[in-house]
Amino acid sequence: MEDLQKQIREPTKEQIAEYKEAFSLFDKDGDNVIDIKYLGLLVRSLNRNPTESELEQMSQEVDPLGHEKVELPDFLTMMASRPEENDPEEELYEAFKTFAKDKKPEPTMRGNVLKYIVTSGREPLTDEEAEDMLIELGVENTTEFKISDFIRLIVSNMNNY
């Protein structure tokens, strides 16, 4: 069991190289130290999407004494202790698939179900925002659509920001 945990936590050589390369882009003078203010940008450049709370935890982890600096070894240790994030597109697909009317062969959903979901969550959209989303998706309340089409729309809009 311990070997399995070690295996899960240890980044691959490729990941370490990727972390070092990303770090070097922020390390202008090559001393393996960057300003803490770049930590969020650095982590996000590695396709991670931490919340502000998680970034604060990361900052404490790499700079417990508050020197406002991040050293490369501390950064590598911090990244190794955090599991790789899943593909957000896949996570969205799996989440919305649970609400699908028909799961075979391609999960579908009605517009009114989607509207209910997006206006009822922890960070709900307004009715107007939900209607705009349905219009952009090209569906009405009773129209069925493929969940994969909806996920592609969300991801393409996220990439535009």
From TrEMBL:
Q: Name one GO cellular component term.
A: myosin II complex
The EF-hand domain covers: 14-49
Q: Cite the InterPro entries for this sequence.
A: CALM/Myosin/TropC-like, EF-hand-dom_pair, EF_hand_dom
Give the Gene Ontology MF terms in alphabetical order: calcium ion binding
Q: Which Gene3D superfamilies match?
A: EF-hand (1.10.238.10)
A Pfam family it matches: EF-hand_7
Q: Which UniProt keywords apply?
A: Acetylation, Metal-binding, Repeat
Q: Reply yes or no: does the keyword RNA-binding apply.
A: no
Among its keywords, does the record have Repeat?
Answer: yes
Q: Which domain of life is it from?
A: Eukaryota
CDD domains named in the record: EFh
Provide the protein name: Calmodulin
Origin species, per record, is: Ichthyophthirius multifiliis
Q: What is the lineage of its organism?
A: Eukaryota, Sar, Alveolata, Ciliophora, Intramacronucleata
